[in-house]
Each structure stands twice: as C-alpha cells, then as structure tokens.
Design a protein that fits this description.
239 residues, five-stranded mixed barrel, 25% strand
Length: 239
C-alpha cells in the first residue's frame, strides 16, 4: 500500500516560503551593494577633504570630514563629556564651545580616560585656534542608548540638545569640529583620534548572498522537478 500523497496546499506553502527566502537573500545582497556604494563615497570623502589645507569654518552647513579652522576662546565652564570607547580604552570625548565672533562652535577637544578630574582637561584661558575635521550632528543618542540631558549623561553629540543644556545662544548646530592632536601642551584631552580608515567587506558579503541565492534557487528547481515526476497525472504519460 503506497503512502499518502502530500496535499497540494502543502506544496504551495513550501514553494511560497522558498520564494520568500530566495527574495530575502537577493534583498540582502542588494542592501550590501548599497552599503558598498555608501562606503566608497565615505572613503572618497575622507581622502579628498581630510588631508587638505584647512579652510575657515563655515557659518552654515559643511561637508563631513572637511578640514577647517576657527579662532575664539573656549567656554570651559560649559564643557560636556560624551561617553566614548577608543583604542586608548573607555572614557569620554570632551565637547567644549568655542566662542567666536560669529557665535559658538562645538569642538570635540579630544579623548580623556575615565577617572580624571576636570582640572586635568580644563580648557586653557585666553585666545584659542582650533584646526580639525567637520563632523555632523548626532541627534538621538546611539542604537543602544539615549542621551539624558537632565542628568548630564551623553552618548552622542546631539548639538541642539547640548546647546540648550548649557544655555548657549547663536551656536552652530549643524556640525562640530573634531580637533587635531595638539603638538604641545597637556596630555589630555587627546585630539586627532578621528577614525579615517574604514573596513570595507560589503562586496564580499553581497557576493556571498547572491551565491547562496543561486544555490538555493538551483536546489528548489531540482526539488520541484523531482516532485512533479511523483504526481499521479505523470503516470498517464507512460500508458
């Protein structure tokens, strides 16, 4: 006695699930290709902007990684700390407003490890000139954590919230400046830690997803053809 034949609805369900899985693999490959284009644009931006002669910091929007300079005085009493993890270990970025003739510009003066007293990284009084790279506003915190202005806990450079928190007016909120490493002076904060090299494996991931999709499609074609040969109506061809 032959076994019960699998119902048609089960075959259709399996085929639909397989189609969704195949489409998902193609979609992931396409997403990696879009990420590849974004990463190549980012690398090109760094190479063309970050190593040229500095230009005056723009009053409005500016392209990220543009090398700029600005002069003024640091408002050290309005400094904020942003949680950071670098090659030097865990600690904080020190964000201090630079008061210029055109208003305030937030400056990431550099990294300090946890456990330092404020006196170890206070801004020096008097005129200051900052050279560094434009970094764009980072509102909303990170994927895992949110900024908490009311408690002074910061995990990203949300410039509008930071400006409100310290009571600044006429501050630049489109970008801040990542300061370059200082040649002399205090050890902390440590500038010049802007990440300028980026791992790029998106093409390999995309090809992997496309290859998996091709193999999966080939396997499904084989299974479907094999299933068709077992259907009852196929037996009438041999009679």
């Amino acid at each position: 006695m032959s076994g019960a034949r699998r119902p048609t609805w089960a075959d259709v369900t399996i085929l639909l699930v397989a189609g969704v899985m195949f489409a998902g693999m193609i979609a992931l490959g396409n997403w990696q290709m879009r990420r590849l284009a974004w990463k190549l644009d980012l690398i090109d931006a760094v190479q063309t902007r970050a190593f040229g002669d500095p230009v005056p910091a723009p009053a409005g929007d500016a392209p990220e990684y543009l090398r700029v300079f600005a002069s003024g005085r640091f408002a050290g009493d309005q400094s904020l700390r942003i949680k950071a993890v670098t090659d030097l270990g865990p600690g904080f970025w020190i964000m201090t407003p630079l008061i210029t003739q055109d208003g305030a510009i937030w400056v990431n003066r550099g990294f300090v490890p946890g456990g330092l007293n404020q006196g170890d990284w206070d801004a020096a009084p008097g005129p200051a000139r900052v050279t560094g790279l434009v970094r764009l506003d980072q509102p909303g915190g990170t994927l895992l954590e949110s900024n908490q202005p009311e408690t002074g806990r910061w995990v990203s450079a949300d410039l509008a919230e930071m400006t409100r928190a310290v009571g600044l007016t006429e501050a630049q909120t489109a970008y801040f400046i990542d300061a370059e490493a200082a040649g002399t002076g205090a050890l902390w904060p440590r500038g010049g830690l802007t990440r300028l090299t980026f791992r790029n494996t998106h093409l390999a991931y995309a090809l992997t997803w496309y290859a998996m999709a091709a193999l999966f499609f080939g396997a499904m074609v084989y299974v479907v053809k094999d299933r068709l040969t077992t259907l009852p109506w196929r037996g009438s061809d041999a009679e």
